[in-house]
Specification:
Elements: E1 11-15, E2 18-21, E3 44-49, E4 52-58, E5 66-74, E6 77-81, H1 87-100, E7 105-110, H2 115-118, E8 129-132, H3 134-142, E9 154-155, E10 159-164, E11 167-172, E12 184-187, E13 192-194, H4 212-223, E14 229-231, H5 240-266, H6 271-277, H7 289-304
Parallel strand pairs: 2-3, 6-7, 7-8, 8-9, 13-14
Antiparallel strand pairs: 1-2, 3-4, 4-5, 5-6, 10-11, 11-12, 12-13
Helix pairs in contact: 4-5, 5-7, 6-7
The structure holds zinc ion.
């Protein structure tokens, strides 16, 4: 029997561990408690569309928010976009997929090369085909203590379509954004666009490895897909209408953070003082603002000073 969650929640449980999105009012936040959820509700699988699911588990650290992966079930196997940050957490993703389908995982798309999306990849089946941007492959190849993509990984530098079990999926590089090798996955039949870390849902723009103004252009390209549902790599999976508002909200947050850093830079404020003076307005309430605000100021200064290659 379906168990109805309080009206504040986005999802209703339809099977053990699987949630179905409902068009209900949700609190726009990445924080599970403010959202009306319990920590024990995670990890969870969310049904997005026919045969399309997300898997949400908590990112490491005290401030709770989800790392969100997508998987697509086809008659010939499963397509996975991103995984979790440890072998145990990615084992959870593999087990969650097995609860939905007995079909094997065939493709894994590395949309973000960061450890919180790749460090658990040893738990994925050994015979999957990895798809990765050449920049991300180079980053992982030279990083210490990271998971390494196999030498036969398929490189996508721009755009490439694949078909599995009648489902076409297009892997696209929308420009440098959060990592420099950011890939998106477009499901044309479902009008679903998985954006990984190009879209952080109510999580403060995280710029440690970012290209701030190029990221804005990547968001323009993402919005030009006119997707029914946009899926973020961090933060909750939303219903279509909410996701379409939230990608715009994220785009505005990026613009506001970049504009605030530029204002301080133009006023000649040294970067260490700019970090103290920065006023992020409503975005100071977003998850990770305290840790990511200073990093964003430094990165925008770097770009404005021509130090970002
Ligand atoms: Zn991440």
């Amino acid at each position: 029997m379906a168990h109805l969650r309080p009206p504040i929640a986005a999802a209703v449980l339809v099977a053990a561990g699987t949630s179905l999105l409902l068009a209900q009012a949700v609190v726009r936040t990445a924080d599970p408690i403010k959202r009306g959820l319990k920590e024990s509700d995670f990890p969870r699988t969310v049904k997005v569309s026919d045969n399309v699911y997300t898997y949400e588990d908590f990112h490491a650290g005290d401030e709770k928010f989800t790392t969100t992966n997508m998987f697509v079930v086809t008659s010939d196997g499963v397509i996975v976009a991103d995984a979790q940050g440890s072998p145990a957490a990615t084992r959870g993703l593999v087990d969650a997929i097995a609860k939905v389908t007995p079909k094997p995982i065939k493709y894994v798309i590395i949309c973000s090369d960061h450890g919180d999306h790749t460090a658990g990849n040893a738990s994925l089946p050994a015979d999957v085909t990895y798809i990765i941007h050449p920049t991300s492959k180079a980053i992982l190849d030279r990083a210490q203590n990271s998971w390494k993509p196999p030498s036969n990984a398929v490189l996508v530098a721009d755009k490439k379509s694949f078909t599995l079990g009648g489902e076409t999926f297009e892997v696209a590089f929308l420009g440098r954004a959060h990592t420099g090798g950011d890939l998106a996955v477009w499901l044309p039949r479902r009008k679903v666009l998985f954006l990984s870390e190009i879209f952080l849902n109510r999580v403060f723009p995280a710029m440690r490895s970012a290209y701030p103004t190029e990221w804005l252009k990547a968001l323009d390209r993402a919005e030009s897909y006119k997707a029914d549902i946009y899926i973020a790599g961090h933060g909750f999976t939303e219903t279509g209408p909410v996701s379409r508002e939230e990608i715009v909200a994220y785009h505005k947050a990026m613009q506001a953070v970049i504009a605030e850093a530029k204002r301080l830079h133009d006023a000649g404020v040294p970067v260490d003082d700019a970090i103290k003076q920065a006023n992020f307005g409503e975005y100071a309430q977003w998850t990770l603002s305290k840790s990511q605000g200073p990093i964003a100021i430094r990165k925008v200064y770097e770009e404005l000073d021509g130090k970002l290659k």
